[in-house]
Design brief:
The chain is an alpha/beta fold and 250 residues long. It has a domain of 166 residues: Vaccinia Virus protein VP39 (Rossmann fold, 3-Layer(aba) Sandwich). 40% of the residues lie in helices and 20% in strands. A 7-stranded mixed β-sheet has the order 3-2-1-4-5-7-6, sandwiched between helices. α2 runs parallel beside α3 and α5 crosses α8. The structure holds ligand GEK.
Length: 250
């Protein structure tokens, strides 16, 4: 077998020059720069990824299935894989962007962990989920239509074994206008410190406006409980980006 080549990834310059406003899409041009884009845009991403391995290791159950919903290029999928010591488990990564899934395939092949990974190019709203112990939605739910989020979370909760967990990372908004402004400004400062210009920040912001719909932490907690999870815990926050754990009761 020939060794798989690492897919080349480039600097994110997508919004560097002035352009007509278009909704953001996870197409080939985004997939090509995605590792650089997410690292420079999402505060805490480089901390959250290795912690997904630690969390998976704590909650994976023998003979169960684990899911990474909205896996993109597989960073969170690989973190889960390395936290799964049980040979009898399965790991499934799902994304509805074919550009992402094609590249993800290469990254998975380059990783030498023996646990097989199944990749599905499909909508997480339709993908079958059964007998789960750990499911990850790492910055994916925010892209799902708000009125379909409860249905998805309910399906995940019903498919999760007692003692199993959902890792949910999201960009959030704040009820308090002052706090909203402060956290948004700090997020933009983070992007500036990572080399994005004011033009890049404002064009990306407007491309995401109709596509990434953030909700409050209280809204997330309430809906997770309605879906059938308990003990919702925020284990990480940096500015307006949080990661939560939601448990299935024993
Ligand atoms: C990481 N988890 O690197 N069905 C399937 N996939 C979807 C859907 C949907 N309905 N909506 C969005 N996606 C990754 C990062 S990125 C987060 C996740 C970001 C996919 C979309 O194609 C994209 O690949 C991913 O969710 C969101 O840890 O870009 O901020």
């Amino acid at each position: 077998m020939t060794a798989p080549h690492k897919p080349s990834h480039q600097l994110d310059r997508i919004y560097a020059s002035e352009q007509p406003r278009q909704d953001f899409r996870f197409d080939e041009s985004v997939a090509r720069v995605f590792p650089d884009m997410i690292r420079r845009s999402v505060p805490g991403y480089t901390t959250i990824i290795p912690m997904i391995e630690v969390i998976t290791e704590q909650y994976v159950q023998p003979g169960s299935n684990c899911y990474d919903l909205g896996c993109s290029l597989g960073a969170s999928t690989l973190a889960m894989r390395h936290g799964m010591p049980h040979a009898g488990c399965t790991l499934v990564g799902v994304d509805n962007s074919s550009a992402m899934i094609e590249r993800c395939q290469h990254y998975i092949a380059l990783d030498d962990h023996p646990l097989p990974v199944t990749l599905r190019c499909e909508d997480i709203l339709d993908t079958p989920i059964t007998d789960a112990s750990v499911t990850t939605l790492n910055f994916t739910l925010q892209f799902v239509e708000p009125d379909r989020r409860l249905e998805l979370l309910t399906r995940i909760a019903q498919a999760t074994r007692p003692g199993g967990v959902l890792i949910l990372s999201e960009k959030i908004r704040f009820e308090d206008e002052q706090e909203q402004q402060t956290q948004t400004r700090l997020h933009h400062e983070f992007k500036r410190a990572n080399g994005y210009s004011d033009l890049e920040i404002s064009q990306k912001r407007s491309a995401l406006e109709q596509v990434l719909i953030p909700e409050t932490l209280a809204g997330h907690k309430q809906r997770l409980e309605e879906a059938g999870f308990t003990d919702v815990t925020v284990w990480y926050q940096c500015f307006n980006f949080v990661s939560m754990l939601a448990f299935r009761p024993n």
